[in-house]
Specification:
The chain is of the alpha+beta class. It contains eight helices and eleven strands. It has two domains: about 90 residues, Phosphorylase Kinase, domain 1 (2-Layer Sandwich); about 180 residues, Transferase(Phosphotransferase), domain 1. A hairpin with a 4-residue loop joins strand 3 and strand 4.
Length: about 270
C-alpha cells in the first residue's frame, strides 16, 4: 500500500498543474483531471505510485510512450508530455468527458453505438497495421470526448506482434479471449475483445464464459442489427482463434462492407415496430 507521503490530494499543485479531481485509480497509477495553470487548459494526468517509479517501470513507460507515439490516429489517445515534478512522474494527455464504462451505465442509442463501433474498429485496425496488439481492450480504456468522439488509451501492456507471440496472460479478466488468458495473445485476441464490446453496445448484455451462442440479449441484437453484422460479431467471438478475423483490419473491412445495409435495416425495422 502506498505510504502517506505518496498520497496526492485534490487541490495539490504539481509544478504548473493543479489536481482538480480524481477520475481513476489502478494498481499502478492514479489518473486526475487537472488544470494546466500556465496555459489555462484542462488535462488528464496519469501519476504512477511512487512504489512503482523504478528503472524497470520507467523502461516500461518509455516502451508504452514509443508505441503510442507510433500510433498517430484520431481515435488513439496521444501522450502530450511526460516529466518528473519532484518525485512524481507526471504523464499528460487530453482530458476526456468520460469513459465508455461510464457511458454504458445508461442506454446507448443505435446511432451512438454505431459511431463508437466504427471509431473503435478504426483505432484497433490502425494499431494492428503497425503490428501493435493492445491486449487490454475494455470499456475503461475507451475514452469519450464531445460528440461521442472515441479514443483508445492505455497501451501499457501492448505487445509488438511477431511471427510467434508469447505472453503472460496479461489483460483484464472478462474482456479477454480464452487463449490470451492462457498467455498466448495475438491480433485475433483483440478481435475477440472488440466482439465482446460491440455485442454489449448493441444488445445491452455482456457475453460470458464459456461463450456459447446464443448469448444473453441475442434477441435484442436481432431486433437492432442486420444478420450480416450479427454474423460478423459471432465470427469475432469464436472460441477457436483461427475461426475469427485474423486482425481488426479484416474485421473493419467486413463492417464497412455491411454498415450501410445495417443502417437501412435498423431504420426500416424501427419504423415498422
Amino acid at each position: 500500500m502506498a505510504s502517506e507521503r505518496q498520497q496526492l490530494r485534490v487541490g495539490t499543485r504539481l509544478g504548473k498543474y493543479r489536481l482538480d479531481r480524481r477520475i481513476g485509480v489502478g494498481g499502478f497509477a492514479t489518473v486526475y483531471a487537472a488544470t494546466d495553470t500556465l496555459l489555462g487548459i484542462k488535462v488528464a494526468l496519469k501519476i504512477p505510485s511512487l512504489d512503482y517509479v523504478s528503472s524497470g517501470m520507467l523502461e516500461e513507460f518509455r516502451r508504452e510512450a514509443r508505441l503510442t507515439m507510433k500510433l498517430d490516429h484520431p481515435n488513439i489517445q496521444p501522450i502530450r508530455d511526460a516529466t518528473f515534478v519532484g518525485d512524481y512522474l507526471v504523464i499528460v494527455a487530453p482530458l476526456a468527458e468520460k469513459t465508455l464504462d461510464d457511458r454504458l451505465k445508461k442506454r446507448i442509442a443505435f446511432d451512438t453505438a454505431f459511431s463508437i463501433t466504427q471509431q473503435l474498429l478504426e483505432a484497433v485496425a490502425h494499431a494492428h497495421e503497425h503490428k501493435v496488439i493492445h491486449c487490454d481492450i475494455k470499456p475503461e480504456n475507451i475514452l469519450l470526448y464531445k460528440g461521442s468522439h472515441v479514443r483508445l488509451t492505455d497501451f501499457g501492456i501492448a505487445k509488438v506482434a511477431q511471427s510467434t507471440i508469447s505472453g503472460s496472460g496479461t489483460g483484464t479478466v472478462g474482456y479477454m479471449s480464452p487463449e490470451q488468458a492462457m498467455g498466448k495473445p495475438s491480433a485475433r485476441s483483440d478481435v475477440f475483445s472488440l466482439g465482446l464490446l460491440i455485442y454489449r453496445l448493441f444488445s445491452s448484455n455482456w457475453p460470458e464464459y464459456p461463450f456459447r451462442w446464443p448469448f444473453p440479449g441475442a434477441e435484442n441484437l436481432r431486433k437492432r442489427l442486420h444478420p450480416d453484422l450479427i454474423a460478423m460479431i459471432r465470427k469475432s467471438l469464436a472460441i477457436d482463434p483461427h475461426q475469427r478475423f485474423r486482425d481488426a483490419n479484416q474485421m473493419l473491412r467486413e463492417w464497412n462492407k455491411n454498415h450501410l445495409r445495417a443502417i437501412r435495416y435498423y431504420r426500416k425495422h424501427r419504423v415498422e415496430s
